[in-house]
Amino acid sequence: MNKYKEIIKEIKKNNKILILTHIRADGDCVGSSIGLREIIKSTFKDKEVKALYENVHYLSYLGKSDKVTDEDFNDSLIISVDNASLKRCVDERGKNLKRVIKIDHHPNIEPFGYINVVEEEKCACAEMIIDFYKSLKGAKISKLGVEALYTGLVTDSGRFKFPGVTGDTLRKVGMLYDLGLDANKILNTLDETTLKEIRFKGYVLENLEMTENGVVFIKIKGEDRERFEIEFDDASNMVNSLGNIKGSPIWVLFNEYNSDEIRCRVRSIDIPINDTAVKFGGGGHANASGIVVKSWEVVDNILKDLDEKLKNFKND
Ligand code: AMP
């Protein structure tokens, strides 16, 4: 049976549904969870559906996360979206779940879930939620749901630029247009910036560094963000400004969260880098991964590893 049909059967049997995401929210986990909530709520009017995600200000046009109680965790059908590992669940109460459904597009390193739908080839989890919508007879969705799913697709595909985007992805976008999507409004909101961010971007571009073989990186300290009055997430988003430099198909942004937590965002073109991420305790996709490390020493080891990888790639 189509796995989505199995999930639909479960949804029909339960009056309460709770949708969980991963920590350090992005457009796809927030978009997928709201999209799924809106499909279920619009199609089955009698069900109580909650989506739990971290509120990040650049996605505030999608509204705040639902508030979730202990009771909700105990008596809801739980669906985890866009999360490879329960250790990275947005809520402590979700980290040791016994019964959960998984819908995800990351490598299936932890195949949790009594129903497990994992499609690594999909460019965004939101694509999978649209497949769910298409499998549900008589499915309905609100305007918010349409906007959320588009947000997931457009952010995780790098504006439909990353590998994994297919004709099917774009047909799904077409479907969202047919359902009333105002893509221009969302793109303008996502692209909106501030003078502080522009000035900080100038700092990042001025101060980026390069390893011997061409891995581009920037190390952002707490005091840098303070000086430019920049939020942590906005500083992290500067990773996209480091890409596309000729001869440098690997780039990394290191952002110091506190004295023993440095978050790394690794990106690449054509060269898989998720094995390096896994080696240092992180994970992610072939060309977009993340790691959290405890010291700048480890950062230097990550750079060495990536530099070696790039050297081998160039010598091949
Ligand atoms: P990010 O750089 O945060 O956008 O992450 C890129 C990809 O790597 C996303 O698919 C994340 O879910 C995944 N990822 C980020 N950080 C980690 C981590 N510490 N462990 C495992 N996967 C991660």
Give me the strand/helix succession. HEHEHEEEHHHHHEEHHEEHEEH
Q: What is the radius of gyration?
A: 20 Å
- Give start-end ranges of low-pLDDT stretches: none
Bin the helical content. 40-55%
- What structural category arises from helix and sheet content? alpha/beta
Strand proportion: 15-25%
Q: What is the average of the pLDDT values? A: 97
| Count of alpha/pi helices | 12
Rounded to the nearest angstrom, the distance between the terminal CA atoms is 44 Å
Widest β-sheet, arrangement of strands? 6-7-8-9-11-10
Main sheet makeup: 6 strands, mixed
Record field, number of beta strands: 11
Which ligands occur here? adenosine monophosphate
Envelope shape: globular
Explain what the structure shows:
The protein is α/β, with parallel strands linked by helices and 316 residues long. It has helices at 3-13, 27-43, 70-75, 125-135, 143-156, 167-178, 183-191, 195-207, 222-228, 232-236, 274-279, 296-315; strands at residues 16-20, 48-52, 77-81, 101-104, 115-118, 209-210, 216-220, 250-258, 261-268, 283-285, 288-293. The strands form two sheets. The chain has a six-stranded mixed sheet with strand order 6-7-8-9-11-10. Strands 2-1-3-4-5 form a five-stranded parallel sheet. Strand 6 and strand 7 form a beta hairpin. Helix 2 packs parallel to helix 4 (125-135), helix 2 (27-43) runs antiparallel to helix 5 and helix 4 packs antiparallel against helix 5. The longest helix has 20 residues, at 296-315. The radius of gyration is 20 Å and the shape is globular. The site of adenosine monophosphate (AMP) has 14 residues, from strand 10 and strand 11.
